[in-house]
Amino acid sequence: MTIMQSFSELMHQRQQRETVKRSRPVETETDVSKLEVSNLNFFYGEKQALFDVSMTVPERSVTAFIGPSGCGKSTFLRTLNRMNDIIEGTRLTGKVTLEGQDIYADDVDVVALRKRVGMVFQKSTPFPKSIFENVAYGPKIAGQRNQKELQGIVEQSLKRAALWEEVKDRMQDSALALSGGQQQRLCIARALATNPDVLLMDEPASALDPASTARIEDLIFELKQNYTIVIVTHNMQQAARISDWTAFFFQGYLIEKDRTQKLFTTPKKKQTEDYITGRFG
Amino acid sequence: MSVSGNLREPALAKRHRIGQLFEWLCCGSTWFGMVVLALLLLSIGWKAMAWPTPDADAVDRAAATKTDAKVAASLSPRPLSARFLTSYDSRIPQKAGIKAALWGSLWLLVFVAITTVPVGVGAAVYLEEYSNEGRWKRIIQVNLSNLAGVPSIVYGILGLTVFVRMFGLFGHDGKVLDLNLGFAMLSLPLPFERSVISGALTLSLLVLPTVIVSAQEALRAVPSSIRNASYALGATQWQTIRHQVLPAAMPGIMTGVILSLSRAMGETAPLIMIGALTYLAKCPGKIDGVAAVWEHPTRLLEAPFDVFTSLPIQIFNWVSRAQPEYDHLAAAGIMVLLVVLMVMNTAAILIRNRFQRRTQW
């Protein structure tokens, strides 16, 4: 039971942080669901990776996906902005809706979808260009040509990603010269620049040192006031620290999804309990 | 007497000797190539810098020329000289130069580059970025590799049929198509006959498989994370290729293109096959400098359809002549060709290094 206790402690720390960090009420989320997934099955060729997954993602909240490697959490995340479309030989049944619109409908343009559902990857992937060009890329390819507008967007995005102060004097330097944590925040800024509603994050801090991780976590906390965030993490403490909702995946099945506090302290399913107490995975 | 843990194991000495032997063998292989190359360069360089020692005939000829001081002054003191670069081929070896071949090669280079780069890069982008894995892609891929290994003379035969004769579609005498470009008239001879354009297209076919394969390698080396990041920001496939993939792959593509171009520059067999002239005392389109272009700009339109010769053909021609002087002229020609190729390869390396410093992951 010590592990359960430690999670309770985490929850407590977190509440403290929430009250310290903001004057606003703790619960910013609404009950409106942003994304709804029903009966989703996903296949890589013949191999089925997701089995009959259904869940809702509430607006302006952080939803974390946890589970052992290969449980399908990243695959599921990628179905939410159709990044799996790029992989050849994948197939999907079921329905995913964004604000009631079926994102897999025939007349949906994936380019438009991905502008509303941004994504940040595990490995920071700055383009081999300047910091400015990295952040301006999204708006530019969407047709924004006005240099003043672009500068405004870049500045605002970098500020939101808590990177502006560190890079404002070297916007023309190569993005590759930034540290790992800065690169990851740059990638978040880049994703914010296209003005999405939803931000998908695939283990955004797993390759970073503890200090950088803490900064990213703080950032996620800030961002949920304006964005719906879905994050995949293999770090349960991280899920406990930052998320409002947690979903536990195992072998392609969604085992359990609940309020983070509930899931970590009183899981309903045996598998969830075994996993979060460290008995496997 | 040997106990476990003994640090002096005589049996090990043999294994070390084998290792040593292998290192020497590898070192020998390296130096074998280097020594042969050095010998080749030295013998050619020596030949290029002096005329052969005069035999009885040559002494007679020299005596004959001595009578005419004017002629004597116009003769080159050695095969490789400034004169060599600025004069046409000649019956008198001391007067012969490589001008026509140099300009011919330049024209070939330009046209091979113009046709190879878009077609080669386009094909590579299609194969790597757009086409689906499958049987057709595998068949194309295998055939590309096979085509890269086809002997160049075979491409010469192909070029002869397709470009020089155009399957005989235009009758025995051919036709001339006059196109009005607005600012000038372009006389397009059909078929292309033994022109620069025929030679360039043939050489393009020859190097295209190599260009495509090397461009594919360069595209494949671009990490997929860059593509995914671009797609995730709402970029279309074309935008991703245009703004991320191609710039990142450019150094690799350029290296492949330039190395292929220098291979095309050195090719002889296919050009002989399509009938590039071996004795020619004019440059394509009579363009032998910027001044000529300035005075007669329309000649730029004539040059591609003019007869030509190229560096390796000129060398081949000289080697096959009887007089020993031509042997030395050939050596001088080889030196020029080597310098041209070296400049191109250096350019390839410089371009690669320059871009690599900017793109690192």
Task: Give a verbal description of the structure.
The complex is a heterodimer of chains A (281) and B (361). Chain A contains 11 helices and 10 strands. By secondary structure, chain A is of the alpha/beta class. Chain A is globular, with a radius of gyration of 19 Å. Chain A starts with a helix and ends in a 5-residue tail after the last helix. The model of chain A is unreliable at 21-26 (pLDDT under 50). Chain B has a single domain (82-358), classed as Orthogonal Bundle (MetI-like fold). Chain B has a two-stranded antiparallel ribbon. At the A-B interface, helix 3, helix 4 and helix 7 of A face helix 9 and helix 10 of B.
How many domains of chain B?
1
Strands side by side in the biggest sheet of chain A: 6-7-8-3-9-10
Broad structural category of chain B: mainly alpha
Sheet with most strands: strand arrangement of chain B: 1-2
Assign the CATH topology of chain A. Answer: Rossmann fold
Tertiary shape of chain A: globular
Amount of helix of chain B: 55-70%
Outline of chain B, from the CA principal axes? globular
Low-confidence stretches of chain A: 21-26
Q: Give the tally of β-strands of chain B.
A: 2
The named CATH superfamily of chain A? P-loop containing nucleotide triphosphate hydrolases
| Secondary structure tally: strands of chain A | 10
In percent terms, what proportion of residues of chain A is strand? 15-25%
Q: How large, in whole angstroms, is the Cα Rg of chain A? A: 19 Å
Report the average pLDDT across residues of chain A. 87
Q: What string gives the helices and strands of chain B in order?
A: HHHHHHHEEHHHHHHHH
The most extensive interface, with participating residues per chain, is: A-B, 26 and 24 residues
Largest sheet of chain A: 6 strands, mixed
